[in-house]
Design brief:
This protein is an alpha+beta fold. It folds into two domains: 6-248, Creatine Amidinohydrolase, Chain A, domain 1 (3-Layer(aba) Sandwich); 251-503, Creatinase/methionine aminopeptidase superfamily (Creatine Amidinohydrolase, Alpha-Beta Complex), CATH 3.90.230. It is built from 15 helices and 22 strands. It has helices spanning 6-9, 25-30, 88-101, 130-136, 168-174, 179-185, 198-206, 224-233, 242-250, 254-276, 282-295, 358-376, 386-403, 412-419, 498-503; strands spanning 21-22, 58-59, 81-83, 86-87, 106-111, 117-119, 122-123, 144-149, 157-163, 191-194, 211-214, 300-301, 306-309, 330-334, 337-339, 342-343, 347-351, 449-452, 455-457, 473-475, 478-482, 487-489. Helix 10 packs across helix 11 (282-295) and helix 12 (358-376) runs antiparallel to helix 13 (386-403). The radius of gyration is 26 Å and the shape is globular. It starts with 5 loop residues before the first helix and ends with a helix. Residues 1-47 have low confidence and may be disordered. The chain binds manganese (II) ion.
Length: 506
Amino acid sequence: MKLPRAALRQCSRQLRPHQTNWPLQPRLQSAKSTSSIPASSTPCRPSSRTYATTPTVVSAADLEFGQPVYETHPHMLQPGELTPGITAQEYHERRSKLAFALPENGIAILASSELKYRSGAVFFPFRQDSNFLYLTGFSEPDSLAIIQKTGPKPGDYVFHLFCRPKDPRAEQWSGPWSGLQAAEDVFNADFTGDIARVESLLPPILRGASKIYTDITSSTPVTGQLVTTLLSHLHLPPSPLAGLVHSLRAIKSPAEISNMRHAGRISGRALTSAMRRSWSSEKDLESYLNYAFTANGLSGPAYVPVVAGGSRGNMIHYVHNNRLLDQNQMVLVDAGGEYGTYITDITRTWPVNGKFSAAQRDLYQAVLTVQRQMVSLCRENASLSLDQIHRATEAGLREQLTLLGFDLSGGGGGKMDVLFPHHVGHYVGLDVHDTPGYSRGLTLRQGHAVTIEPGVYVPADDERFPEHFRGLAVRIEDSVVVDVDSPLILTTEAVKEVVDIEALRG
Ligand SMILES: [Mn+2]
């Protein structure tokens, strides 16, 4: 069977630039005349109080979608983009690469996230499943994406997107969603259908499959029971899909790197502005950062930040952020913003009063020296994995701490596990801990995006360590993209040299 290729239609939105009229089903259904004049250009005549309201065509700019699209949000998206910085063409290429990796007649099925509730009727802002988002750009719950391989060449695939049909009455309560027509016209689905009818729509698609890849289980909301029952009836035991998608996600495209650099630049500047000011409470500092990320063009904080004064920095994920700050202590801040669903991950530690004490400076400088060395290894021609950089970090910190008078001999290994209890880094991208399960033992290559975040956490009450360092916690973290012969540091605007930090309050 010859099926249409998504590639043939993936530029369709460029044929409908801003202000261009195009037909959409909901308006057509309510049309009562055949006027060809769009409502937006019809003058209102106050004297007669008559309104021309029934165009046969309507500008996309006059419609509501479930997420920003270029026609409605030209301040957020460029022509051709489905999400900030990422074009419809790139989404097509991602699906194409996934399909290419599937066996003949293989099918991948992905379920969207569902709206999650905080308490009672209070819900969290919706966040699409990262793999679903990566392959579709479609950010709505109650959706199912199917990528069906149709031939041996790149681009030989069909994309089905099942979602919610437009429903003005329901949308009046929930806010708008995009509907089936937009699934085709905007998101380039070859076929679409009502998610409520998936029970009858899915079997004909799956029947010819040689192998199914999916991470849907019977406990996946909305479609889980249905999909798993169907697969068992069709005798198609599914294989996990996440690993295939993560292999694609792990290597960032130029557009993704650009988004991450944008998030890193704005977030880094916010951190530096925060360091310039004097703070008396963790909560004020947290609020400032969240505001600064958003006010400067990011969509918001990428994760719940750590704002930890003094020895609270020893708790790696301290997020209460509700104590007062002691002017003689340091504050450890792990905070980053998000842009186009791409995150940045930064940690800085600085003296609350703007000037390092001798012990604070020594410990800080030890961590910084190692952090800089490890960042410099994030290049393809170093041929190292994150795990190998982690071992180099341990060796580097051991050397630096010994110079500072730490006795790491004898049971030194155990002591290092106390002082540096976490891995030096992780992959970053759409998620903070990106592509979970993707091995840190793989040699880094161009396009990998990682954090480098060594830390030293000296317990307040452990007499094995020099007294003047007890209770101090230092972590320094940058997000970095691996290039061939150099690292691209995404978060360089967050200053980290001792002299630069102290100069901010000069
Ligand atoms: Mn991190």
